[in-house]
UniProtKB/TrEMBL annotation:
Transmembrane segments: none annotated. One of its GO terms (cellular component) is nucleus. It is found in: Nucleus. The lineage of its organism: Eukaryota, Metazoa, Ecdysozoa, Nematoda, Chromadorea. Its main location: nucleus. Residues 66-87 are annotated as: Disordered. Gene3D superfamilies: Ribonuclease H-like superfamily/Ribonuclease H, Winged helix-like DNA-binding domain superfamily/Winged helix DNA-binding domain. This is Paired domain-containing protein. GO terms for molecular function: nucleic acid binding. PANTHER family: PROTEIN CBG27172, TRANSPOSASE IS30-LIKE HTH DOMAIN-CONTAINING PROTEIN.
Length: 259
């Protein structure tokens, strides 16, 4: 990048024009040009001491462990695919991001044979134990489970959110569900174990966010539409992989694991 800046500077281009053409900040251009004028070149300043190297005993051992842990996982350096251009196409270089985008809070449940409806939480409502028990468990999950499972024995599982592991919530589940996973049996932090997190939400997000939504209502309708499209054939592998994730977690002794 310094070479491109110096080249344009030698051609008599103004610093603001250089910054605009290279799509970089004016302060960066000013710093490089000022250094070039002072030194007469753009070479790196001489450094004292032995040059740093990545070929150390610790790094070699770390790399060896990484490959031994999962030899089938590819390990590549993403920097190898980086190329610098003096004239980058601006339509590809500009990526728009909205700061603090608005969103929707939603709850849902899945099993091998079906799913609940989406439960949208109103803006400003905090999901405490009272709201969770009354508006989600009692109002939606309980009647749905009675209709869906009837007399079949089933297990209710939830993550360790504060509202979920509250004593009154645990007692509510113990009273109303045939079997449920208690907070003592569930890891405090386990995004890779919850079927909703390791698959269901990812599928829904990929389908819904492939297009822009100008309003929250548009986003909400897209969520409902894509959620309704999820069939038992889509959900069955998600739920059946639950045991696989548990075994991988045990094998990793609660640490990071890859599926």
């Amino acid at each position: 990048m310094r070479g491109a800046i110096i080249k344009l500077h030698k051609e008599g281009r103004r610093q603001c024009d250089i910054a605009k053409s290279l799509n970089i900040g004016k302060a960066t251009v000013s710093k490089v040009v000022r250094r070039y004028v002072e030194l007469g070149h753009d070479d790196d300043r001489p450094r004292s001491g032995r040059p740093a190297t990545v070929n150390t005993r610790a790094n070699r051992q770390w790399t060896k462990k990484r490959f031994m842990r999962n030899p089938r996982t590819p390990h590549t350096n993403p920097q190898n695919d980086r190329h610098y251009s003096t004239e980058p196409p601006r339509d590809l270089a500009i990526v728009e991001h909205r700061q603090h985008p608005r969103g929707i809070m939603v709850w849902a449940g899945v099993c091998t044979s079906g799913k609940t409806s989406l439960i949208f939480v109103d803006k400003g409502v905090k999901i405490n134990k009272e709201v969770y028990q009354k508006d989600i468990l009692e109002a939606v999950v309980l009647p749905w489970s009675r209709e869906h499972f009837k007399n079949t024995k089933w297990t209710f599982q939830q993550d360790s959110a504060p509202a979920h592991k509250a004593k009154t919530t645990q007692e509510w589940c113990r009273t109303h569900f045939p079997v449920f996973t208690t907070s003592a049996e569930w890891l405090p932090y386990s995004p890779d174990l919850n079927p909703m997190n390791y698959s269901s939400w990812l599928i829904l997000e990929a389908r819904v966010c492939c297009r822009r939504h100008q309003t929250l209502e548009s986003l909400k309708q897209a969520l409902i539409e894509e959620w309704d499209k999820l069939s038992p054939q889509d959900l069955r592998p998600i739920a059946e992989n639950f045991v696989k994730h548990l075994r991988l977690c045990v094998a990793a002794k609660g640490g990071h694991f890859e599926t």
